[in-house]
Amino acid sequence: METIDKIKEQISENPVLLYMKGSPKLPSCGFSAQTVQALMNCGEQFAYVDILLNPDIRTELPKHADWPTFPQLWVNGELVGGCDIILEMFQQGELQPLLKEHAMKSEDKASS
Question: Which of 7, 25, 54, 102 is the most buried (most CB within 10 A)?
Answer without folding.
Answer: 7
